[in-house]
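In response to the reviewer comment on reproducibility (Comment 2.3), we provide here a single inverse folding case reported in full, input and output, so that an independent group could reproduce the run without further information from us. The structure tokens appear first.
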């Protein structure tokens, strides 16, 4: 029966006006019960596709539903996602009402003869309608004048992302459907069954994300030319962090632990400790460059992974600096204890003998003055600056000299071997504390 109706319509559509017929005539020819023309008589006689249904009256109710077939790519660098959807729109056109309780699926090319909504995708960068082997469109006509219009569309839609918590982030993206030219006085957009109007999105398996939840909204877009109806599908994507843990977090943590090996090597093993420090620094630098190469266009963001890599690099560099400080202090201590040799030593001995001879030949008063002067020069940190015989500027110099000696004493390493001893405990302890604060902040705040 459907084939007979469809063949008849195709024949009548392309016949001249004076030879057009009605479905009732064909029915009479076949001896079946007569039915009126299922909307095609209006289409061929007085139907104007440039005027919406209820033109000049109430707005057209357009109910929509969609299936999300796939989300092929989500680009952080371009701030967009690409999705393939099946968009279905339903509305009623009283000009296409016919008697009966049947529905007819028409050739998609006949959509050019009907009025259809001017729905478009907001913030779409690129979109196209699939046309293999023919245009992927569907037109179905019901007896009460309801039209089902379905399309298969692939679109790339902008999605503003906040990458400050990358890769522990959750992104919220939207798919917005809006009327281009008809405002809310002409058309009204509604979801066919609320949240149940969207299918397929919960079954998606994405490479880096998991769909947390989705929901539908009905809104309006206020423009300068009017208020336009808008439907919104909003969905949340949570990034799978396991890949980044294995790819970045674990290697960087192991490099930090490798830098601690130098604390168990003696200070005399200069090549071994230097090699470990320089190797770990270079490896960490390479890891940081590699992690940022995939997001080269979003370097303006300070991401969570950048913070962690910066922390690891600081600890590795600190281990290298720790050895430099310990080795320098050790060399200075040994140089101070080592006996002086050569002409300088002989000259010093001669000067000491001369000084002793002079002291013995001098008077007791002169001897006491020299001893007092020597004690002031050698142990300046114990100088009594409250002497009444000292002038004001001398007292100020004395106080400043004492303060400087105390400050230098605070930073003087008495035993360089203790530096490694304390580093074995402090470096792991501080690294663990920093990790606790890092993961607590980015996972729970």
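Designed residues, in position order:
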């Amino acid at each position: 029966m459907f084939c007979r109706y469809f063949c008849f319509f195709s024949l009548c559509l392309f016949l001249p006006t004076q030879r057009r017929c009605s479905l009732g005539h064909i029915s009479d020819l076949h001896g079946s019960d007569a039915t009126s023309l299922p909307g095609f008589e209006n289409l061929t006689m007085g139907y104007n596709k440039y005027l919406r249904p209820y033109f000049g009256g109430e707005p057209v109710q357009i109910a929509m539903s969609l299936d999300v077939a796939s989300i092929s790519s989500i680009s952080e660098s371009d701030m967009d996602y690409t999705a393939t959807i099946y968009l279905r729109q339903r509305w009623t056109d009283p000009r296409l009402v016919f008697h009966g309780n049947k529905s007819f699926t028409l050739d998609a090319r006949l959509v050019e003869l009907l009025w259809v909504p001017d729905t478009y995708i907001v913030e779409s960068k690129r979109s196209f309608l699939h046309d293999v082997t023919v245009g992927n469109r569907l037109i179905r006509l019901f007896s009460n004048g309801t039209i089902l219009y379905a399309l298969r569309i692939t679109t790339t839609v902008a999605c503003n992302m906040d990458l400050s918590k990358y890769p522990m982030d959750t992104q919220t993206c939207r798919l917005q459907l809006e009327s281009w030219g008809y405002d809310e006085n002409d058309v009204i957009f509604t979801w066919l069954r609320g949240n149940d109007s969207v299918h397929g999105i919960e079954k998606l398996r994405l490479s880096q994300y998991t769909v947390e939840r989705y929901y539908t909204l009905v809104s309006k877009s206020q423009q300068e030319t009017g208020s336009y109806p808008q439907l919104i599908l909003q969905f949340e994507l949570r990034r799978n962090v396991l890949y980044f843990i294995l790819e970045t977090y674990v290697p960087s943590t192991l490099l930090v632990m490798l830098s601690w090996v130098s604390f168990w090597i003696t200070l005399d093993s200069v090549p071994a400790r230097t090699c470990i420090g320089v190797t770990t620094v270079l490896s960490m630098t390479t890891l940081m460059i590699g992690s940022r190469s995939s997001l080269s266009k979003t370097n303006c963001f300070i991401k969570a992974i950048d913070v962690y890599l910066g922390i690891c690099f600081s600890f590795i560099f600190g281990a290298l600096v720790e050895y430099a400080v310990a080795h320098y202090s050790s060399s200075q201590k040994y140089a101070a204890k080592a006996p002086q040799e050569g002409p300088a030593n002989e000259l010093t001995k001669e000067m000491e003998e001369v000084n002793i001879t002079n002291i013995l030949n001098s008077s007791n008063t002169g001897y006491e003055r020299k001893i007092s002067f020597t004690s002031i020069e050698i142990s300046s940190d114990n100088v009594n600056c409250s002497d009444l015989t000292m002038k004001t500027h001398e007292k100020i110099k004395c106080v400043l000299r004492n303060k400087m000696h105390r400050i230098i004493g605070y930073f003087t390493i008495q035993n360089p071997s203790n530096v490694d001893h304390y580093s074995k405990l402090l470096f792991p302890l501080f690294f663990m504390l920093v990790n606790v604060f890092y993961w607590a902040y980015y996972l729970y705040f």
